[in-house]
Amino acid sequence: MIALLVRDLRLAVRAGGGFGLGLAFFLITCTLVPFGVGPDGALLARIAPGILWVGALLACLLSLDRIFALDWEDGSLDLLATAPVPLEAAVLMKAAAHWLVTGLPLVLAAPLFGLLLHLPGAAVPWLVASLALGTPALSILGAFGAAVTVGLRRGGLLLSLLVLPLYVPTLIFGAEAVRRGGLGADPTAPLVFTAAITAASLALVPFAAAAALRINLR
Amino acid sequence: MTSLWEYANPVRFMRTSGRVLRWLAPLTGLVLVCGLVWGFLVPDDYRQGATVKIMYLHVPAAMMAINIWVMMLVASLIWMIRRHHVSALAARAAAPVGAMMTVIALITGAIWGQPMWGTWWEWDPRLTSFLILLLFYLGYMALWSAVEDADSAADLTGVLCLVGSVFALLSRYAVNFWNQGLHQGASLSVKSGERMSAAYKYPLYLCMIGFALLFLTLLLIRTRTEIRTRRLAALHAREARA
Question: Which residues cross the membrane (chain A) (predicted)?
Answer without folding.
Answer: 12-37, 43-64, 96-117, 123-150, 157-178, 190-213
